[in-house]
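User: I'm writing a short report section on ligand binding and want a predicted complex to refer to. Could you take this sequence and fe (iii) ion and write out the structure as C-alpha cells? A short remark afterwards would be nice.
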Amino acid sequence: MDHGWIDLHTHTTASDGSLTPTQLVEAAISIGLEAVAVTDHDTADGVEEALDAGARLGIRLVTGIEISAQLEGGTLHLLGYEIDPLEEGFASGTTRLKQARIDRNPKIIRKLQDLGIPIKLEQVEAKASGGLVGRPHIAETLLELGAVTTVQEAFDKYLASDSSAYEHKFRYEPAAAFQLILGAGGIPVMAHPYQTNREGEELRRLVADLKELGLEGIEVHYSHHTPAQTVFYRKLADEFDLVQTGGTDFHGSRKKEIQLGWGKGDLRVPVELLEALDRRVARLSAI
Ligand code: AMP
Ligand code: ZN
Ligand code: FE
Ligand code: FE
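Assistant: Sure. The C-alpha cells for the complex follow:
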C-alpha cells in the first residue's frame, strides 16, 4: 500500500518557528506530506493563515496549539488538535497567555541588562516578526550580541529555569488547560512525555491523573524519542485508551537539526494516526 505521511507538531512565526504559516504549508507540500498541524506555543494566531494556505494549495491543515501547563518538577506541554480558534473561552484564555509573555519579557531583558549585557527588548521583538516572543528569540539576540557562542549556551547560562536571567511566566494548571482545549472542540494530547521528567510508573500515574482531567492522546512519535520511549508511550496509549500522535517539533531555521516530516532524519508519522484522531473528534462531539 502506498503510504501517506504527516507531521502533527510544528511551529510558525506566530510563536518561535522561522517559517510563516503559508511557508510552512508550502514546505509540507514540497516534501509530499498528506497533512500538517500547526501547534504554536500558547497561541493559535497562525492557524487562520495556515488554513487558508492549506485550502488554496491543497493539503489537509490540522488546527492546533501547544499549551505550557503547570507541572511540579518538569515540563508539561499539551497539544490541542482540531480546536476552533475563534471559540470565545479559548480566545480569551490564549489572550491571557499572550499577556503573560508581554509581562515577562521586559523582566528577563532587565535581568540581562543588570548582568551587563546591552540587550534591548526592541531587538528581541524584531526577531519575532510580530508573533509571540519566546526565549528562543532572546537566545538568538544574545548570540548576535556576542554574549554567548551558541543558543544552548544562552539557555544554560541565562534563560533555563535555574539560570540567572530566568523569569517565571504564568501557566494554567492542567485542568484549566484541558478546559481551554476541550471547550474549543479540541483533543488534548500530552506532548513529548519525557519532558515531564517522569518515566515508568511515575509517568503512568501522571497519565492516569491527566486522563481524569480529559486527556485524549499521547505523542508517541517525536524527534527526540528513543525506540524504548516510543514503545512505552504506545503501551500507555493502549492502557488508557488514548490516541497516538506524532510530529517533529519543527521550528525551521531556529532548530536546524529538525527537518519537517523527518525529524532528525528517520522519523515518519503515518496518516493512519490522523484518521484515528478524526474518529476521536467525531466520538467526542457526539457526546
Ligand atoms: P518559551 O516559549 O519562552 O517558554 O520558550 C520555549 C522554547 O524554548 C521551546 O522551543 C524550547 O525548545 C526552548 N527551550 C526551553 N528550555 C530550553 C533549554 N533548557 N534549552 C534549550 N531550549 C530550551
Ligand atoms: Zn518552540
Ligand atoms: Fe514542547
Ligand atoms: Fe513544540
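A remark for your report: The longest helix spans residues 88-114. The mean pLDDT is 96.
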